[in-house]
# Entry
Amino acid sequence: MRTTTCSLPRRVRGVTLIEVLVALVIVAVGLLGLAGLQVRGLSIQKDAHGRALATQLALDLADRMRANRVPATLTPPVDYTFTSAYPTGTPALPTASTDCEAGVCNEAQQAQFDRARWVARVNQTLPGGWAHVAPIGGTGNRAWNVTLLWTETGFRARTDALGNALLASSCNGLALGFAVPPEVECMRIVVRP
# Structure
């Protein structure tokens, strides 16, 4: 009986092992890239969610203004104005002197009640949520600037090693009348009730 042995030249041995290791490195880098894309996509989704919530809240205030018009002029009462500065600590939310759910209110009382409820909802719904509502001059309360402010938690919340915001705040140039921290996002909607 004859036995045959296969002998490979010395230089060929181990080549497959190197090829497998190179393939594993390429696959690992690809998976890390895929994981990075997934994380970035989720953070951008969080930013988009914040903007969607802010839009819904602005539309809620517009609906409240439309429902509460002064019969003689068909304009919302001036009491919707809310221009308090962005809070640095626990915010002092506006209050209403009359509970309009418990009884009948006039237009000014309804506006005060709506504003108090709405600002509280903005503060509860958005992270670091705040609002700035002011009538546009010369429109007779027929047009309002509704600016919503909140702290970003997604991609736009990134900072460098020194804590400086990498992306400029969208509040720059809105002339709110108070300073806004750089990590705060703003969205202004013009409401014509």
User: Anything to note?
Assistant: Helices lie at 15-67, 107-125. Residues 155 and 173 are 22 Å apart (CA to CA). The longest helix spans residues 15-67.
